[in-house]
Design goal:
By secondary structure, this protein is mostly helical. It contains 7 helices and no strands.
Length: 145
């Protein structure tokens, strides 16, 4: 389980510009070497470029870990067509009861969810490249870079 968390963090970090240090170093080098690049690499363009690669790497890593640790018998691993044991039924009941015990989301949890969604929206709309973003409208009123 620990290995899969490490792989997921490394692979998921490649999808965002701020996800791993090499991504930011590459952007800094691009800006230093090509100062008139028009800020071609931003959060939205990086995500659009790297998300398909990240998704493919994540799927391949998942299959690799499945085969490596659970074997190649996918039917047995996922319980397709197999009778459920007493352990499976009791584990399902415990999980269902724990989810029920969580109750409704609190105000703080809803506030964090809303702020996170707002943060992601602001990241993607800051300067998407194909239209002026909110950063251009707020901080570049004179039209000069």
């Amino acid at each position: 389980m620990s290995l899969s968390v490490c792989y997921a963090a490394s692979i998921g970090g490649t999808a965002t510009l701020t996800g791993t240090t090499p991504n930011l170093i590459m952007k800094g080098q691009l800006d230093d070497l090509f100062p008139k690049n028009g800020d071609i690499i931003n959060f939205a363009t990086w995500f659009g470029f790297s998300f398909p690669c990240m998704f493919i790497m994540l799927a391949l890593t998942w299959v690799w870990l499945q085969i490596l640790y659970l074997g190649f018998n996918m039917k047995e691993n996922f319980g397709c067509g197999a009778a459920h044991s007493q352990k499976d039924a009791s584990a399902y009941r415990v999980i269902k009861e724990e989810v029920k015990n969580l109750g409704r989301m609190t105000f703080a949890e809803i506030a964090v969810l809303i702020l996170f969604i707002l943060l992601v929206i602001l990241w993607f709309t800051r300067d998407p490249g194909f239209i002026p973003g909110w950063a251009t409208a707020l901080f570049n009123k004179g039209g000069k870079e």
